[in-house]
Amino acid sequence: MSETDTDRTTPAVRPVLDVWCELQCTDCRKALDDLRTLRARYGDRLEIRLRHFPLEKHKHAYAAAQAAEEAAEQGQAWPYVEAVLARAEELGERGEQLLVAVARELGLDAEEVDTALIDGRHLLIVDADQAEGKAIGVTGTPTYVIDGQRLDGGQSQEGLRERIEEIVDGLLG
Prior knowledge:
- The protein is an alpha+beta fold and 173 residues long.
- The chain has helices at 26-42, 61-73, 77-85, 88-94, 96-105, 110-119, 123-135, 160-172; strands at residues 16-21, 47-52, 143-146, 149-152.
- The chain is built from eight helices and four strands, in the order E-H-E-H-H-H-H-H-H-E-E-H.
- The chain has a four-stranded mixed beta sheet with strand order 2-1-3-4, sandwiched between helices.
């Protein structure tokens, strides 16, 4: 093998874990511990992608998904998601006011988050995520998809992180 050949022990493409999430969902808040553990274990070897699946039963979830996309534009996707999930019940009471307040607390451009909620610049991303989720059978949150396997965390998180680790370890070789 020449020095220019790819190291065969490292996959050419890192595995991707799609996490279908809703920011007013307390089950998604519980799932954060597993996501933190996965990030700590795999670091950059595993890509964890937030996918939006706002549920109709939560009136502010759709706005929260849009605000999370604006936070991502500002380089703070996961800190914003974690901060909003930590206050899921409060989101139910305060709605968009809380979304802007969280942005401000994290040092984001809160006015830009507010403007994004008004002008709907992230609607297409949220709608596309939701449509893709429905197409692959997502019905609740959190739902994980890795290597073509869908794992439903809405019923129980029990054993899911371990199953994800088995799959990732197999993909990483």
